[in-house]
Amino acid sequence: VYALESSNPSIISNGLATMLVAKEMHKDGIKIAFGGEGADEVFNGYKWFEPMEQWSEFKHKLIDDLWKTEIRRLDLASMAYSIEVRCPFLDVDLFQSVCELQYEDFFGTIAIEEQVIPLKKLILRQVAQDILPREIIIRPKMSFDVGSGIRGLVVSFLRKDGKTEREVLKSIFEKVHVSQELSEYNCEYPAFDKVIDQRGSGH
Q1: How far apart are the C-alpha atoms of 153 and 165, rounded to whole Å?
Q2: Distance of alpha carbon 56 from alpha carbon 181, whole angstroms
């Protein structure tokens, strides 16, 4: 909470996972790394939309909020251990090219060994189809905190006394940031706050 300057449950659990990786990288003397942040926002990896739904607007809202959600979390968590992370998926030229793509470039099916599998981030998977193993190409999305097991630990710890995650994190924030007022910047994740408040240890 101190390092991430946040009381948002998702920022905290994903940030903790990031910090643990950054800590090990620091031990190994690594100073710069590549991160995958931005791929879900730019390539529509968070939610399945139908063609007539507002998928493009949702994507741009997520991108607009990156500075106070995923990129902020990544930067603060990694720099806590002096690791500088570069995010190739947020390259300006790449982003501008992706903005020209259509619905069917992001949402659709991929055929592998007579299986037709519905996928998000379709074009990204197609580009990597001849490079990465099949099980990675068709792997369902899983957030870092769930895949690492961190979310389950965080949820059970913060809720152990019958309080919500936000209640406990707010009280911690107020203790470690006595001179900083809790604001939207510290606690909101605009696109996902309702889902975050209902989350469990998995998806």
Answers
A1: 12
A2: 34
First CA to last CA across the chain, in angstroms?
23
Handedness of CA 15, 16, 21, 24 (dihedral sign): positive
What are the tokens at 165? 């995650």
Mind listing the pLDDT tens digit for each residue in 126-183? 999 899 998 999 998 889 999 999 999 999 999 999 999 999 999 999 999 988 888 9
DSSP string, 99-117: TT--HHHHSEEEEETTEEE
CA–CA dist 71, 57 (Å, integer): 20
* Residue 166 to residue 200: CA distance in whole angstroms: 13
How confident is the model over 115-125, as a mean pLDDT? 92
